Amino acid sequence: METEARTGTVSLRMRGDPWIAGMDVTMSFHVSVIGRAGFTPLPSRRVAPEVADAVSKPVFVIDAGLNTRFSNRGATALARNGLGDTDRFTACDKDFMARLQVWMKRCRGGSTVGETRLPLALRCGRQVAIDAVHLAGIDLFVLTVDDPESAMERNVAQVSEACGLTPTEERMLALIVEGLDTIVAAKRLGIAPTTARTHLQRLFTKTGTARQSELVRFVATYVEDAR
Questions:
Q1: Fold annotation for 2-30+59-146
Q2: What are the extents of the domains in the chain?
Q3: DSSP states of 56-98
């Protein structure tokens, strides 16, 4: 897999699979960064490939027989929650699997649109959604897992990297996003409330925010600049 970045567009190319030999499967994701008056983000720092993969959305590429042709690290990590496998795409949610296979069959028959969104219950009970797209030209299906809980975790990691947070500041940010005040956060971190408030002020400074609600909104809507 190769990634290329161009002026707000990230292209994901998958090569080397015998099912797609001689072709490039390209998915482009257009991203933008919300402008903030009086705030200039710190220059982007290079992220190690394994870190970038860990914070990316889980993605599976499967064929009509449910054989897994590609999965990133985020997708692989979901196996313990009953989603996906090394060689074959499976899910513990049987209703989801039935709906997915009906949609796939209709896609191949040309009787429905080539994209859908299906609800899915993980083994742990957490509700997520699967955004599925049919690549009709090569008869493959791209399944992207939309998990609000893990999405916030990814955003915290990306904000931490982009804004140069220390490990303690990142943990503080995660607790603030969780909805805790500085007193409870201080107890969780094992530090004094005054120290927690100092960390919070540093978070405000580094992210260009002024209130906890604004900080949470900044993290929730954060989109990493593609360079």
A1: Beta-Lactamase (3.30.450)
A2: 2-30+59-146, 149-220
A3: SPPEEEEETT-BEEEE-HHHHGGGGGTB--SSB--BS-HHHHH
The H or E element containing residue 199 is: helix 193-207
| Sheet of strand 9-14: strand arrangement | 2-6, 9-14, 25-30
Cβ neighbours of residue 213 closer than 8 Å, sequence gap 6 or more: none
Cut 0.85: pTM above it: no
Euclidean distance between CA atoms 142 and 65, whole angstroms:
13
- pLDDT average per 10 residues of sequence, the chain (227 residues): 40 45 42 40 42 65 94 86 87 95 94 91 88 94 87 87 94 92 94 95 96 91 63
Distance between CA atoms of 99 and 118, rounded to whole angstroms? 8
Residue-wise pLDDT tens digits, 103-131: 999 999 988 889 999 999 988 888 899 99
- What's domain 149-220's architecture? Orthogonal Bundle (1.10)
Contact criterion met (CB below 8 Å) for 118 and 99: yes
Query: For residue 158, what are the contacts with CB-CB under 8 A and spacing of at least 6?
Result: 55, 222, 224
Gap between the terminal Cα atoms of the chain = 18
